[in-house]
Amino acid sequence: MDGRTLAEFSNATVDRIDLEWLARRVGTPCHVYSASAIRQRIHELQRALGGLDAQICFAVKANPLRAVLRLMADAGIGADIVSAGELQRALDAGIDPQRIVFSGVGKSIDEMRMALEAGIARFNVESRDELDSLQLVAAELDQIANVAVRINPDVDAQTHAKISTGKAANKFGVSADEARQWFADRPRLRNLRINGLHVHIGSQILGLDPFRDALDRVATLRRELEAAGHVIHSIDVGGGLGVRYREADDAAPTAAEYVGAIRHALHDYRGRIVLEPGRWLVAEAGFLLTRVLRSKQGDSRRFLILDAAMNDLARPSLYDAWHEIVAVSPQPRAEVTYDIVGPVCESADTFARDRTLPECRAGELMMIRTTGAYAASMASTYNSRPLAAEVLLDRGRWAIARRRQSHAEMCLGEATTLDWQAQ
Ligand code: LLP
Question: Taking each helix axis from N to C terminus, what angle separates 128-140 and 109-118, rounded to the nearest 10 degrees?
């Protein structure tokens, strides 16, 4: 017990691990995920999908840590990838290539080649140019690529503008008209099997109506294409299901409600349904441990300065996202209203404004909640701050899934003295 008495341990435990103890062992800032909470989410969604021919493909961008992807692989979950890097991570973690789908508007020729060679299940294709390029690459490799057409249903997901993807003005997907044309062109695209539809309208969606609208449009197009003699082997309903960042405000649909909407919209569809949840599976299972560096009384505001910063968690600065921030062992002190900030040298490095908390002092351990998705995955080394450690907890056990980056690792590949060469 590293020399301390029981009384010196704080009460704050997650997955039966004492957080104060963990923070001393691993240092802060540090991303922590509960493996058992992730498994619980997986099972909840799998239960809701009971009886359907459905495949969950975890959106790797939400949390690409290979130990997290391994949890997915162990539960039979596949991957929704958007780059060669994500493909490699999914394969490293043991995800079956036949359960991998490839989304994104900017797949490069090399990425298409790698994915075809790995034998992934399907490409979600977003433009005519991409379709023609994929045909060329598949022909060159003498392979057949399965293609789902990503439909842009022109639906407002009613979420933050920066994470909305389903309006006609967004760069994603193609119109139903264009999709019809692609199906009509099938005989000329000999190395493609265009037999799927895909839709993804945005992220952190808290109502079911946008999903219903988008799925209804896809279902109508599917009926029409089938009536014209085309086979629609799969419908990929994307991701986007929101989570509860604020106890009081965010009322997210349950897995059962969400799947109920899918069942309803696709009730007469007999093919495979693919889901690409990211955030919903992991966000609430994670938190960011950080210590108070100091507090500062400005002219008009009081600042609480943490050792985590916008490079560790960019969501508040990018999307004005709200994350709950609490002391791990709150002290019975008078309440203070803080702007909670990090050490990075710009005012965007603000996690929260006007948060009222019992006074916090230097050295105290804090937790920023609901950071299992899009936190570590969007981290950078801005201000030359090394990437934070990532830790998994599992029912009384803990493990470092990624150690804190050292200065040398942060500078890897970078030259101090340049080796100039003539062209
Ligand atoms: N499928 C596709 C094609 C996507 O583009 C995305 C997310 C997902 C699935 C997974 O969506 P989810 O279930 O996680 O909502 N960085 C932002 C979120 C960006 C989402 C990008 N695409 C944030 O921190 O809120």
Answer: 50
